[in-house]
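The protein record passed on for reference:
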Amino acid sequence: MKSYNTMGSVYQAHTSKSSTPNIIVDLKVIIHETVTILPPQQTEKRSMFLSNIDQVLNFNVETVHFFVAHPEFPPESVAEKLKSALSKALVPYDFLAGRLRLNPESQRFEFDCNGAGAQFVVGSSEFELGEIGDLVYPNPGFRQLVQKSYDDVAMHDRPVCILQVYYFLYWQVN
């Protein structure tokens, strides 16, 4: 099987005649840390108007990207750099540290730019990236890479932004 990096995703070209790719459904994901990342400085408390289309198309966007590990950047270092970058980004993009709420007067959704913070999750899997199947195609196991613990939390307490980093066993691309 040949592998290469394409736009942040690892593509694995199957060289065998088998039309059924190997798919591991249980990725054996372990969550190591879940923290709230706050902006490094206080931001203006304000409400942010949402357009009519934002009122109707109100849903979570769950996206998974795969990147091959670099041997000079250990997982702990990558996680710390991402935490720092996210924290700094929450100043100019303050709505990402806010919450979605329903304005009682207008009955419209809006961002409550309150600096409550974004969530940051660090986890791992015991598998190598190359073992979980072709990353270009959907895999039911990828659902394990999207944290669902906020489904029971009231909308006005849910983070708008959740950044998650999962580490797979080191896998060398040939």
About this structure: Residues 24 and 132 are 5 Å apart (CA to CA).
